[in-house]
Design a protein that fits this description.
Blueprint: E1 8-13, E2 16-22, E3 39-45, H1 50-57, E4 62-68, H2 77-89, E5 97-102, H3 104-113, H4 121-125, E6 136-141, E7 153-162, E8 165-176, E9 184-187, H5 197-216, H6 223-246, H7 255-272, H8 276-288, H9 292-310, H10 315-327, H11 334-345, H12 360-371, H13 373-376, H14 385-395
Parallel strand pairs: 2-9, 3-4, 3-5, 5-6, 6-9
Antiparallel strand pairs: 1-2, 7-8
Helix pairs in contact: 5-6, 5-7, 5-9, 6-7, 6-10, 6-11, 8-9, 8-12, 9-14, 10-11, 12-14
Amino acid sequence: MSGFIGTKLTMNLGERSYDIILKNGALENLYQFARLDRRVAVVTDAGVPAEYAQRVADQCRDAKIITVPQGEASKSMKILESVLHQMLEFNMGRGDLVIAVGGGAIMDLCKLLGCKRPDTVHNLYFKRFPVVHEKDVIAIPTTCGTGSECTNISVAIVKDEKDGVLTGGETKLGLVSDDIIPNKVCLIPELLKTLPYKPFACSAIDALVHATESFLSPHRKTMTSELFSEKAMDVILKGFKLIDEKGQDARFEYMDQFVTASFYAGIAFLKAGCGPVHGMSFPLGGTYHVPHGESNYMLFGAIMDYYDEHKPDGEIMKFKELVSSILGCEVKDAIPEMNALLQRILPLRPLRDCGFTEADFKAFPLSVEANQQRLMTNAYYPFDLESEEAIYRKCY
């Protein structure tokens, strides 16, 4: 298998730098950019072929493979605490290495594992324990959607609290710190060949949401984020058109573009942040364990319609012009045509199919307002409790 022949980039952020090895590599060539003569935790999930993690571990002098449940389950506090305990038993400490091989949940988990061990995961996410970088992290994504391999955000399902008192429920929270950005990223399209179609589609739609929300961010968007979000949207929508025309297997001839677009979208929302699609989907994922990409997809079309209804000019006009140029439709039809394309890529499940109840129409907006303001403040057009409830009802 060939060595890494893609581009090597370096991002500087604060006092640390981050190397990104782009594409066309093989797991066997990790030694080219990482010291593997230290203790190494190779963390993966049950949905990733075991050979991937083993091929990484075989290069290391002293490695432990840690396999966690697949998907959203790996975001739970219980799993996080279990993995932290396994690393403690392995005597891992400052200067050792964590290698993440998996999807977004594994990326988020491993970004935490590179930091100083907290007293409790709950206190870490409610900002009662400091985030301190301690171990190097190499991120090797096996999906093409989260962008988590290059961001400063880690999302977990934690016990919900209000005014310091546990409510008895759970929610998703994002922990934001530059100390959790992986030290190195390796994009290897071959690792996505075994990804089933639905997880692929959900993750690719998730990347489209990242790029779109970053592009529409009213407060934090920069020239950098706009550049990367535009490119990500262009590549992803063209890939969806290809699949729509040729069928699901067409994704394999375009996989390197999808994994690169996901990375671009990650850079975009590292700078500009995500918004209400993520904010309103977090209670859905936390309560009913709907996979992250799918929960975003459930709300994405309705929120874009909401924006277009309330503020049709401005940045969303630029978004519609971009979409119309790719899909070959009138600008006024861009959002409906995009939603229709996504429906052909992956049929949209209504909220009622995942267990959503009448009580959730009131409870979820309250949870969003209490816990997701870092995301809701990035709304292209403002939300309140009533408009959030209306979105949930539209998606029900």
